[in-house]
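tool_call predict_complex ligand=uridine-diphosphate-N-acetylglucosamine
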Amino acid sequence: MDKIVITGGQRLCGEVRISGAKNAALPILASTILGGGECVITNVPRVADVLTMGKLLGILGASVSHEGNRAVIRAEVIHSTEAPYDLVKTMRASVLVLGPLVARWGEAKVSLPGGCAIGSRPVNLHLAGLEKLGADISIEHGYITAKAKRLKGARIYCDTPTVTGTENLMMAASLAEGTTVIENAAKEPEITDLANFLIKRGARIEGAGTDVLTIDGVRELQRGDHEVIPDRIEAGTYLAAGAMTRGDVTITHCRPAHLEAVLMKLREAGAEVQVEKERVRVMAPDRLKGTDVRTLPFPGFPTDMQAQMVALMTMAEGTSVVTETVFESRFMHVEELRRMGADIRVEGNRLVVAGRPGLTGAPVMASDLRASAGLIIAGLAASGVTEVQRVYHLDRGYERIEEKLRALGATIERRKAGAATTGR
Ligand code: UD1
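tool_result ok
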């Protein structure tokens, strides 16, 4: 298995261009099967999850071509309505084809995602919502089966705001007969991006970006072109890397409005943050200050930035309390950060991080996508060599990460499986 080897201690300086948002590209790609026309999607990040979604659409029968950051999809006919276990187990977001399949083709069979490193992640709200829309749902042999002649608009209340759940239901309701109202919907920018794409194709959706979505169903969606929004988590990750290495990093092609909670926390930690229209510059002092963070649904501090923020706090002055309210057991990076010398105590869903003047490089294991990003950042700031193993997690969501970090002055390389390692 590949690993990433970092020799830490360099200040990161310079500019980095932010890629398209993985979490917007995935539902947008899944939604292409809601209509037959050709959809041209640009600013699509070439990351493993996006390639998996392309593969899944291909299995279903869509024609998919993905060159560079442009994907062209046409789903005139569908050969299969099944998302197989082998794909779903590598990417939970495969569940995003459930709503579109049942809405346009009357049936869907999608493997149940199962557990993952960040804890139990049920899809009960996706299923309850589809049932409200009139789908017959059953679970057998590890698969969810949903069937409906034509979905019917309904009033749906989500007990918890769920991002992919809201997306699934919004896509399904776009083709339902009548009006659907989704209450307590998630408000993440990726949902608004999906809604904008659907609207371009003839869907009638109001309220995207608020917690009440109103969708008037139409018979079918037309073709459409769309540019995916920039990835706010990738953006936050490079800002955190700049701040943790006492650097001076400017991210370009980003949307600062999607980053407010992260920017506020970086400022609170003592970094200077300058915001322009599509750029953000972060300049960090020699030592950041400890800062408390609580993850929340958007516009709160994103859970997908929690591991990176914890990494940052391990070297800040003073004690920080990081509370995870979205995925309670999302602390797999903690043991690995401890191997690098971090002082972190776990108390239920809170981490108490006592900042240390420095970390020391160590071999560490990535356990999920964002935990990997936290370890990379820590490795960049630590003294000596850090080897991050299981980097396939990182490849699920970060486009050309070594190249981008090297351009900022990092000493980082990918070693192919079996390649000799240097001494530590
Ligand atoms: C999405 C993101 C992921 C991010 C997460 C939270 C994608 C592809 N993934 O994941 O990167 O970390 O949002 O911002 O966009 N829940 C239920 N029942 C459900 C669905 C969710 O109880 O049916 C709970 C979850 O356990 C969790 C909370 O709702 O506690 C939020 O999860 P959710 O927003 O659904 O996360 P995902 O959509 O899977």
